[in-house]
Amino acid sequence: MTARLVAVCVSGSDLLPLPGRRPDRSGIDKRPVDGRVAVAELGLDGDIQVNRKYHGGEGQAVYAYAQEDADHWAAELGRDLPPGRFGENLRTAGLDLTGAVIGERWRVGTALVEVTAPRIPCANFARFWGVPDLVKRFTAHGATGAYLRVLETGDVGAGDEVTVVEQPAHGVTTGLAFRALTTQRYRIAQLAPALAAMPVKDQPKLAERIARATGRSEAAALG
Q1: What range(s) does the MOSC domain occupy (predicted)?
Q2: Do 154 and 109 form a contact (C-beta atoms < 8 A)?
């Protein structure tokens, strides 16, 4: 099966309200858009990333989620989960995103992107879906999708092919990284070969954790 984009989604200006919280809005409610969408260095045209501490920036400019994983949750919860319901910008088909290698590069439309990290689910995700234990269930299942860095700007649209043009040999996948960051933290040292491709804002803290686990210096962990 040729990998492709099922949909391209952005939040637009109609942000999800979060009464009593700071920030009091979220860009998680994304909707499919027609036509071509510009891919800039820090995200898609029309997409708003409210809490830049946890979402957005150079290593989280774009978020992809697989139709195959969405189908699992649709069956699990007995509800329709159209593109955008996971807060994703790109709904893909034909790609194993849990098995995507950190540092893997994709040609999508005219843009070039790089896999940087799994998504760690947050409480806003559970509020958006109205499923109180969603974070626990999402974590247990482990199909988190993939954050992407934009290496070459361009444009994308529904139906575009997604071609893996480069894949590092270290074998550190988004699935492994997710486990090492959540339920299997004893595996943190296994992220060392992929650290340089992960979001820059996360690298110092991860290097510190890897150094503690291995007895190496943080500089050595960062390569």
Answers
A1: 31-165
A2: yes
Report the number of distinct structural domains present in the chain.
1
pLDDT in tens, 144-198: 999 999 999 999 999 999 999 999 999 999 999 999 999 999 999 999 999 999 9
The upper half-sphere exposure of residue 110, i.e. CA atoms within 13 Å in the direction of its Cβ, equals 8
Domain holding 53, by residue range, is 4-185
Residue 209 lies inside a defined structural domain of this protein: no
Q: DSSP secondary-structure letter at 59?
A: G
Of 124, 59, 60, nearest to 89 (Cα)?
60
Residue type, 93: A
Phi-psi map region of 15: left, alpha, beta (phi>0 left; psi -120 to 50 alpha): beta
Nearest to 190 by CA among 200, 182, 180: 180
Give domain status of residue 192, yes or no.
Answer: no
pLDDT digits (tens, 9 = 90+) for 26-63: 567 889 999 999 999 999 998 876 556 666 789 999 99
- Rounded CA separation 21/69 (Å): 30
Is 86 among the domain residues? yes
Handedness of CA 105, 107, 113, 119 (dihedral sign): negative
In whole angstroms, give the CA distance from residue 66 to residue 119. 13
CB atoms near residue 52 (< 10 Å): 12
What is the C-alpha to C-alpha distance for residues 143 and 15, in angstroms, rounded to an integer? 25
Residue 45 lies in a domain: yes
